[in-house]
Amino acid sequence: MSKKAKSLYYCAHCGHQELKWVGRCPACQEWGSFQEEELPEGMDQLDSLSSFQKPQILNEVKIDASIRIGTNVTELDRLLGGGIMAGSVLLLVGDPGVGKSTLSLLVAGNVATAGKVLYVSGEESTEQTKHRADRLGSFPDSLYVLAENNLELIAQYLLELKPRLVIIDSIQTVFLSKVKATPGSPSQIKEATITLIKLAKQNNIPIILIGQVTKESQLAGPRVLEHLVDTVVYLEGNRNHSLRVARVVKNRFGSTEEVAMFEMTGRGFQEVTNPSAYLLEGRNLMLPGSVIVASARGTRPIFTEIQTLVTEVPEGIPPRQIAIGIDRNRLLLVTAVLQRWVGERLGNKNIFVSTAGGMESDDPAFDLGIAASLLSSMKGLAFQPKVFWLGELTLSGEVRGVPDAERLLAEANRLGFTDCVLGAGAKVNKEESLELNLYKIPHLRSLPKLFPVLAQKE
Ligand code: TYD
Ligand code: MG
Fold first, then answer.
1. Residue 222: left if φ>0, alpha if ψ -120 to 50, beta else—which one?
2. Which CATH number fits domain 282-452: 2.40.30.30, 3.40.50.150, 1.10.10.10, 3.30.230.10?
3. Considering every ligand atom, which ligand is closest to the CA of 262?
């Protein structure tokens, strides 16, 4: 007699799982989103993750030399630390329409110049994929497309074709027929991912999984997905800008500090090799509230503009603080620190802060620049065009030096900046070789003193 299959309930909206049905999802607060899913017997993670390897002596483990597969998309290769690792699984996540399929097809075409590539589309027909490809240019004959959702069949083609790279567009649309749950449900997504990871490892074929997100830009499906794969890349951008930024949020084979930038054009992705020039291009110089900040994360410093508008709020209306492209909590922190240490009353004002050009960052090195732009907007004073700001603020108002300021200053020099305001603790070794005036300030209290030096009336 067979045992009754166990049931699990999951939120179709965010993938949160519960043992009992609930009317409202405790994770994403969506109403009526819970669905039942029967778990087939014997399907537990241990079973599906089991491999065929015996314990090995670490010193005797051989490392394959031809280990990374270059995508020939320079920005992406730099982001990944030299390419996609053989046998690894990369999850590419992003909002609908941000360009995941377009970028993947570009990578597929590039890798196909050196061998077979299989692009599996569970969302679009082969004709639709061809349509997109025609917009992007020409592709080698070694690029195969397959419109299929059944993972057992996909695995069969994968084993026959033995491609250099496989792309699954998207993980939410493929299913295993042996798993009795609807495609897109957490069990299906999890089991499909585990199967694909096994295929990748056993055959030494790298796989790119495209992941859809929910309206809140959360990865749809079970939380474990990001833990299972080797690398997770988020592709970001907003509708009003053509800028697309790829970030690594998890990387078993390299840094997670890098960002890669692209411009979405009528003919697909163009690499942005000089992001600072791109972000600062056409900038309307010398307006109150506009400052340039810098981020030294990753191997390439990025300079971008922040704009701030501080306005009076009519009596009886609660003031608002809006942050676009920067972390709102950082804005609130900077506002509080500025109010406490410089004495500007900001709590009763509307504050709007936005990065220009669509660049998004939560880098604390922007703090000092945000404080400067708030004060600049309030005073109606504009900074000279070639000044930039670099420093993290502590709650007690100190300005911290950012790590690796040296490399960033050298780049600033190259880009033609003339002045930099930074934390007093920043270590700069070859200061005399820089053609930059450095204003090192230990504490935010010194900020107003810089206005007569670096700013002027509009
Ligand atoms: P797509 O790659 O389909 O996004 P995703 O797979 O992340 O959902 O990109 C869709 C958008 O990109 C769509 O609005 C059209 C636009 N696009 C371009 O601007 N240029 C192009 O060359 C292509 C192929 C698409
Ligand atoms: Mg797509």
1. beta
2. 3.30.230.10
3. 1
